[in-house]
Amino acid sequence: MEAAALANEFIEAFNDADWGRFTATCSADVVYEEKGSNRSINGSEAVLEVAKGWKAAFPDIRGKISCSTAAGSTAALEITWIGTHNGPLELPSGKLPATGKAVEVEAVQVFVVEGGKVVRMRHYLDFMTMLTQLGVIPA
Does the predicted model carry a pTM greater than 0.90? Predict the structure, then answer.
């Protein structure tokens, strides 16, 4: 599968909470970097746990892909994440209890693909906007 198609499949599997399909897109030693939180995760099982954590915090969250582009083994997606914070959210400072507030947050996710699997992801998520929408920091 080409890089852009695999990146799109990864987001769609996340949207559907289809964890088998989600994990199938990743290499066993995939590296996930979340630039807004400075979180770095290694391995498909650890990446799966992070994804499940986001779904637990925002059970209705969906990534809407507005642009998808690729060059060689690298794909970049522009994504708008839309959801409601109805569960605890793991932050670098600790767990944020559910606020019940809706978010709409822009992001770019860059995927590197080798051998038909994602080997590296960098997620540039607008944490400041998300935390403002959740009422954690003032507007």
Answer: yes
